[in-house]
Design goal:
138 residues, Rossmann fold, five-stranded parallel sheet, globular
Length: 138
């Protein structure tokens, strides 16, 4: 039995790991003729301008998806306020729930030597849909 996958959600924070995840999710989406929803969590500090982290460019993520073979009309950028794990989990909830969630192993706040970041672990533990954790690019 093959699961119907019409929407793939992927977390994107501008880190190299999240770019690898976007590429992987875009290739998967293209192969399944599915929509790709690129999800970015906007934190309170980022929104207020107090964060040292520069918000990632949606244009870069959208271009990566198109470069992987997805038509522009099948790619969506979604920026939501909240903690990264909570925002990604919201992308798996109705009414417009993703069927699979893709994340990188670690994001912008990664600590060296850590194999999986807290966001990856949290979504893997709590997501109601399959989660793909894309390994660190070598």
């Amino acid at each position: 039995m093959t699961a119907d996958i019409s929407t793939v959600a992927v977390g994107y924070d501008g880190s190299a790991d999240s770019e690898t995840a976007v590429h992987w999710a875009a290739v998967l989406s293209a192969s399944l003729d599915a929509r790709l929803r690129i999800v970015h969590a906007v934190g309170l500090l980022e929104e207020s301008g107090f964060s040292k982290v520069v918000a990632p460019s949606p244009d870069r993520a959208l271009q990566m998806a198109r470069d992987a073979g997805l038509e522009a009309k099948r790619v969506e950028w979604l920026a939501l306020q909240g903690a990264p794990a909570d925002v990604l989990l919201r992308a798996t909830m109705p009414p417009d729930a993703a069927d699979v969630l893709v994340v990188g192993t670690r994001g912008m706040a990664a600590h060296s030597g850590v194999i999986l970041g807290s966001t990856s672990l949290a979504v893997a533990e709590r997501a109601p849909v399959p989660v793909v954790i894309v390994p660190v690019s070598q």
